[in-house]
Amino acid sequence: MSSFRGSLHFFPERTFENDDALKQSIALEHLLTMSSGLAWDWDEMVSTRDWVQYVLDQLMYIEPGVEFYYSSGNAHVLSAIIQETSGLNSDDFAQQYLFDPLGIAETTWQKAIDGIAKGGWGLKMTPRDMAKLGYLYLKQGRWDGRQIIPAGWIEATTTRHIQVPEPLEPWDLYMGYLWWLHEDGPYAAHGMKGQFIYVIPESDLVVVFTGDIPDAKFAKPQLLIRDYIIPAVTTTPATRRR
Fold it and tell me: What is the pTM for the complete model shown?
């Protein structure tokens, strides 16, 4: 983590409440793994006009990197950092450096009141384009003979960094860098109400789900993958007849 620049330093013109040594030690990796140690409340954040200020004003409830705590606020700060460092809003940055090389042209990315692309939600794309993102990761960042994302970043992103306590799924769950890593090998992008991009390297497989399901049934698509789709592509016809 020492190689990561402190996250507050990306906003030199801002001052933040409850500033202390712990807050100064929040690294990009902590935001990427939702282990920043910052308190956070969704309703409070969306009721403010400056989400970045709200998130980074919060009290530290624990040392960074110690405990996973789901926070779309962490992801929104990352979106703001992309804007601060690149001079492009996150949607424009993604379009230029990720979506265009993949041939993804039809996306909609909602913005917060301050104009920053929402880091935690609000990106809409077709299932086919969702599958392209999964396939890019499956192939270690390569697309059509071109290295779009460094292979080392793919590895770091999909490495277990911290365990998720009390997951909605009936299995152990870990965080990579904003990817959810399952105990049996697959990793996934989890979207609101059942939007999933599943990458299963062991089966050379990408699976995409879209839906509108309640939290109580959040694991249903994933159970379909585990219990039916993966066995269907990893067993021979003769085995299935038995």
Answer: 0.90
